[in-house]
Every structure is written in structure tokens, then in C-alpha cells.
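Blinded run. Sample ID left blank on purpose so nobody reads anything into the name before looking at the predicted structure. Input follows.
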Amino acid sequence: MGPRGESLRGAGRVARTECGVFNVRITGIHERAIPIRSKQRNSRFDFSEMCTSVVAVTTDVVRGGRPLVGYAFNSFGRYACGPLLRDRFAPRLLAAEPESLLDESGRNFDPAKAVACMIARERPGAHAERAIPVGTVEVALWDLVAKIEHKPLHRVFAERFNGGKTLDRVFCYVGGGFGTEVRIENGYATLPQSPGIGFEAQPELFAVMRSLVPGA
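Blinded prediction complete.
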């Protein structure tokens, strides 16, 4: 992984979907810091030393002979969050009982339960420090939720939080991550229909993400 990247793996037997038994378990959390390489600057700061964390969360859910992986990267304008992720938040998630991180169906992850697990026993109020590592893992888990359901994430959100109604137009903050499949027409973005968030549609970023988990 290099000096600025590390992988944490969960203990225990790896379960798979077979013989009609569906098991969902996080098997590893991988992180790597990469430079943004941006020349943006203003009168107060610049991005010349800015870096971001690329995260991959691996599971025991197998599709096409390969385990499903959830990907994410933290917000540009924030530095990489590897040390906090490796020292506190990833170990808590990997040590949790797998069933405690699942939704009511027992067939998919519940990102809210994962967030509660990661911030357990944390001092109330110090959210600025932990928001980036916790939020990055949460994004990776939502990517996984949609991939397990084999739907685009915006459709999963519509079903879970909007009575199944997919909005025709939504406000977007242009912060990176849009793939080559995204089309912009009259100021509106058409999102890709591939399962998950759609990171796979952005080749350069996804190449870094895939390098975290060889063979995935």
C-alpha cells in the first residue's frame, strides 16, 4: 500500500451467499492518501499540499466470482483522514458483531448503525475531527448498499426516504466524483444507471480505488 496507505481486515470466517443462506459481513477497510494536485488558491489558502483519502470497504458478498467492494473518497478541501480511520473508527467497525450492522432484512448494511458503532464512546461535540473519516466510510457503505440491491444509489434513496418517488431534479454541490456517464443539460445532471454511486464511471479515480483491493 505504500507508506501512506494501510489495510485493516476483520477476523473470523468469510461467509458467502450459497445454499440459500445470505451472509453480509465487512471483511476489510482499506485507505490510501493521494495528492489532489490542484493549483487552486485564494488569499487565505491553496490546495498545493492538499490530499484526500481513498477508501475501499470489502465484504463477503460475492458477485461474478468477486467480492463486492464499496468505494469512497473524502471531500476535497479536507486533508486525508487515514490515521484517525485506522486508529479508532475502522477497528470499531471490524470488531462489531456483523449482525449489528445490518438492516431489518438482515440482507444488507444499515449505514446509520455503522456510524453509531464508529462514534461509540466518543466525547460529545468534537465532530469536526471525526466527521471526515466517519463520513467517508459511510459513503462507501452506501455504495455497497446500492450494489447489493443492484440499483443506482439515487433509486435506493428514493425507495427508502421518498416513498419510491425518484426526483427529476435535485440541487448538486459540484465537489468532484461525477463520472463520465453523467450528462449535464441546461444546468442539470443526469446520473448513471449503474449500481452504486457511480465511481466506476470515472476511470482515473476508480483506478486508484481498485488498486486498494487487487483482484476486486
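Unblinding after everyone has recorded impressions. The chain has one domain: 5-212.
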